Amino acid sequence: MQHLRGWVFDLDGTLTVAQHDFPAIRRELGVPADADILTFMSTLPATEYTAMKAQLDAIELRLAEQVEPAPGAVALVRQLHEEGRRLGILTRNLQSVARSTLSCLGILDCFAAEDVLGREEAAPKPSPDGIHRLLDRWQLSATEAVMVGDFRFDLDAGRAAGSHTCLILPDNPWPELADWHLPDCSALLARL
């Protein structure tokens, strides 16, 4: 991991304690229980999409006010920043919510404003679009970077971009997709 110059992080559940109750959010929005929220929304007529987007944005902003750092996340980001690594956020959330969350965690200063990508700045994961955008901006190859996240979409995006992948989760249900698997950011920091 020492050779990695670019670190792309998922936010919710990776740098923060997981707080999104997706089944409850689906119920509140009226999204079918087995559907991906963003994919479902993209199929709606424009008026319905706009109304649901406003409702989802409000839910996410409310959740951002209750954010807690994941174990070791702040120390990990600070160390990587001090070492001069390039740091980015790739989230399916809004960029404004991501920036608010990073501010609450006390690490917003570790990320260049243009390196915090939400669902409106890049195609949502599992698309590799956001990783490609960050790598282009940083002028790094995919092999010099890692996508760090807690869900399959993070790993799929990293694989599709050709970067390394690191799963931050107690168990590893996707061993074929994760180059590294650690239970939390504290363990990742210790590995560095």
UniProtKB/TrEMBL annotation:
**Gene3D superfamilies this protein is in?**
1.10.260.80, HAD superfamily/HAD-like
Domain of life of the organism in this record?
A: Bacteria
User: Which prosthetic group or cofactor does it need?
Assistant: Mg(2+)
Q: GO: which molecular function terms?
A: hydrolase activity
Q: Which InterPro entries match?
A: HAD-like_sf (IPR036412), HAD-SF_hydro_IA (IPR006439), HAD_2 (IPR041492), HAD_sf (IPR023214)
What keywords is this UniProt entry annotated with?
Hydrolase
Q: Name one Pfam family in it.
A: HAD_2
* Keyword hit for Hydrolase: yes
NCBIfam families reported in the protein's UniProt record: HAD-SF-IA-v3
The protein's name is HAD family hydrolase
